[in-house]
Amino acid sequence: MDSAIPEGQGLYDPANEHDACGVGFVAQIRGKKSHSIVEQGLLILKNLDHRGAVGADPLMGDGAGILIQLPDDFFRAEMARQGVELPPAGDYGVGMVFLPQESASRLACQEEIERAIRSEHQVVLGWRDVPVDRSMAMSPTVRAREPVIRQVFVGRGADVMVTDALERKLYVIRRRAANAIGALGLKHGKEFYQPSMSARTIVYKGLLLADQVGEYYADLRDPRCVSAMALVHQRFSTNTFPTWKLAHPFRMIAHNGEINTLRGNYNWMRAREKGTSSPLLAGDLEKIWPLIYPGQSDSASFDNALELLVMGGYSLAHAMMMLIPEAWESHTLMDEKRSAFYKYHAAMIEPWDGPAAVAFTDGRQIGATLDRNGLRPARYLVTDDDLVVMASEAGVLPIPEERIVKKWRLQPGKMFLIDLEEGRIIDDAELKDTLARARPYQDWLGRINIKLDELPAPHNPPASAYPASLLDRQQAFGCTQEDIKFILEPMAGSGEEATGSMGNDSPLAVLSNRSKPLFNYFRQLFAQVTNPPIDPIREQLVMSLVSFIGPKPNLLGINEINPPYRLEVSQPVLDFDHMAKLRRIATYTDNKFHSAELDICYPLAWGRQGVEARLASLCAEAEDHVHKGSSILIVSDRRLDAEHVAIPALLATSSVHQHLVSK
């Protein structure tokens, strides 16, 4: 069973995979569990079949699945047949595991899972083979990749007293086992995957057609398989390769759309690993890194980020508001406390932006939210017998009109949540206002938020004197006459960017026979899905250029009572006055921030080896400045002259950033 995603080759990069799909859920508001909820979830899945995709082989889809609550009575009876008596509900968890077909690798994976369970002082209760219909018509390609599917039952140890603590232990066990199996370097190791490991929920999914999920998994047809909610997903891969592990739902979400900011989200999550601490996860936090594995899809990466926040102590709704905030900065009618909530968290984590409708659950609550632009559909209805149905489109269940007491659609940036334990629907306003008033975010911001634009201008700004002439500097930095005539002159004359087309017919820098600036080897990643294109000028309400300079707050600091100071800039392009303020930031902020300057020029006499040598010393200098208390490092190439060559600022910044992240 080889991975369905090929290795990177030529112009193909597996990191660019995205997908668009159909998503839906059905829930009983009062939390009453029944098999009919599972059946209705599977029916929604079948009715979303047209939102999925098949290849040339009509039996090969892009993947489908269902997430339900743990059916305690069902598993209790099934394990009793093996002579295993399960603890009370909430005192054990079930891990759904995809294992390699090759027996040696399979046994190695199982041993690592059991080792992780015991290392975390929990109890291995036993394993169960998941019954599947081998006689079901299935594409030969899918059959060749079909994993061995087993369930592992984990009992709580003596140090775990409540289900929430067990959930965190199961999370750590799953991450620890995945990291250990990845480190083994098994030939068939990539076939290992854990769709879920929880004391509250379980996921049944695979590289199946929508109508095959209920047929393939015999558990879902058993009347004892009951749940108060069912979250389903039918995948449509727009430019990806379907695999068993990439089918939805994931552990907490099912997602229709794309996360266009994924590269930045991944890099920032990676960068903050060393600076994150958690009062709940404590030392276990080191066992879960890396949070996002290279090559994961945007949906899987988002699920990992949400899971970390929830396990770190945030409520499900709080975490979703942090990851997918509504448009707030230019929303003049928004409540000030809610606006302060979003502004406080803006410096803590970057939004996962893109056209997206996301359904989410932790087994106790289930809900959905829409991106700030509302670029993906999501409709819902409520019936007179306390049933809620949400899906990518209306009409996914045959419910008579007279039974419907409310039907509407999710609006841009809005959230819809059902609390199965409280037995009620929590609307967007109540949900967000409650969270916005939980902490004194307005008061905190008034004390800790420093705006660079509002600091007084320098009285005696340093003269902008350069050792080299303007022409020499333009030549040294690779400016061409075309750059000056068609880009810089229009901007200087009218204060606007020159009008141009999206196309670029110039040769790729890597194929050019002329020396090109390092910047020319890179292209901006973006997605244009609207007409006209969205930009912060025409769509000011839903877009923001605000950035933060300096240290990031602790992402999992849920008990924060003394938040750190933050330096805000209205947009990322800084002029001479801004830079002068940053150089003297300690004076302006009463030593709340300290800055240091790194000279990225090196003597011409060092020759070609000078770049590498200077980069090494730059990284050492940066580390020294951080240890001395500097929270802002300024990379400068102003000392360029006839005897000194400037390292490209992009290369120098990247080197320093990567070095500090690793430390």
Question: Outline of this structure?
Answer:
By secondary structure, the protein is of the alpha+beta class.
Features:
disordered N terminus, globular, single chain, 19% strand, 23 strands, TIM Barrel, 663 residues, alpha+beta, Alpha-Beta Plaits, 19 helices, 5-stranded antiparallel β-sheet, 7-stranded antiparallel β-sheet, 30% helix
How does this model look, in words?
- The chain has 663 residues and is α+β, with helices and mostly antiparallel strands.
- Among the domains are: 71-199, Alpha-Beta Plaits, CATH 3.30.70; 450-491 and 514-528 and 567-662, TIM Barrel (Alpha-Beta Barrel).
- 30% of the residues lie in helices and 19% in strands.
- The protein has 19 helices and 23 strands.
- Helix 9 (298-311) packs across helix 10 (316-323) and helix 11 packs across helix 13 (441-448).
- The protein starts with 19 loop residues before the first strand and ends with a helix.
Rg estimate, integer Å: 27 Å
**Could you say what the CATH topology of the domain at 450-491 and 514-528 and 567-662 is called?**
TIM Barrel
| Class inferred from helices and paired strands | alpha+beta
| Residue runs with pLDDT of under 50 for 5 or more positions | 1-5
